[in-house]
Amino acid sequence: AAIYQNETAVGKAIKNSGVNREDLFVTSKLWVQDHGYEKAKAAFQRTLDRLQLDYLDMYLVHWPFGDFLGAWKALEELYKEGKIKAIGVCNFTIEKLQELKASAAVLPVINQIELHPLFQQKELRVYNKENNIVTAVDIS
Fold this sequence. Notes:
This protein is of the alpha/beta class.
């Protein structure tokens, strides 16, 4: 993710690995300061440039703050253009997912959340399942 400042290193590692691009699944995340339609498009291009790639397998909205709906519209367009193979979210509550769903043409395929024995988020996991959203565990 851009906020982790690791995209350049990951891009170099991919380039030097000798592994075919098609054999890798590369994901990154859009940080909150890049929310909004235009900012999200520019941030995505910077991510591609740092990774030295032509497309991402998945791109996630990291947090539901600011103009995340504008950012989502940008991701939907990039998805439809084939520059992103799948789009999703991180840290979205049921309420934020409902807000997104009300205006989205493409629903997220994944919601990466904090999940552990002391924080099970049962209702959110049920909502995700009912809406065909994969619940992924954030292990960062």
